[in-house]
Design a protein that fits this description.
With 144 residues, the chain is an all-beta fold. The protein has one domain: Porin (Beta Barrel). It has no helices and 9 strands. Strands 1-2-3-4-5-6-7-8-9 form a 9-stranded antiparallel β-sheet, with no helix packed on it. A hairpin with a 4-residue loop joins strand 2 and strand 3. The two termini are 29 Å apart. The mean pLDDT is 91.
Length: 144
């Protein structure tokens, strides 16, 4: 189940709120997030505060900061994302766990032609002592 509200507050400001409910065989998880963002000229900055609660227990909080630069005649962009905090995640075969998380990523999109673009990201995501994921993605997309 998901609920989402997105508000254009004017002057380059935006606010979003999300609430989710996930049901697993072992327990239920309630998730919420609040985002505030600001666009100034070709720059965007955003901050996200998230909370998750497992089965009515204590909440786990996380936060993410993101900065983007838009450039060129289209919506080309490059951005940096930094995340930290705690997450509640379903990890097989262990079940639902609360783990500390740290992550950093570079993301972007580069238009090649009027309908074609490259999207890319490179990230490092530490999920507590469970694992560290290093990832590089490059994709080709089209606008219909």
């Amino acid at each position: 189940m998901l609920g989402h509200v997105d508000i254009d507050a004017g002057g380059g400001w935006g606010v979003e709120a999300d609430i989710r409910h996930r049901h697993y065989a072992s327990d239920d998880v309630e998730l919420g997030a609040m985002t505030i963002e600001r666009y100034v000229a070709q720059f965007r900055v955003a901050y996200v505060l998230s909370a998750a609660r497992l089965g009515g227990g204590a909440a786990a909080f996380g936060q993410r900061a993101q900065g983007d630069v838009y450039y060129g005649p289209r919506t080309n962009r490059i951005g940096l994302i930094v995340s930290t905090g705690n997450e509640i995640e379903h990890v097989e075969p262990l079940g639902v766990l609360r783990t500390p998380v740290r992550a950093i990523a570079i993301v972007g999109r580069q238009w090649l032609a009027s309908r074609w673009f490259l999207s890319y990201d490179a990230s490092v995501h530490e999920q507590g002592a469970l694992y560290t994921r290093r990832r590089v993605n490059v994709g080709l997309g089209t606008r219909f």
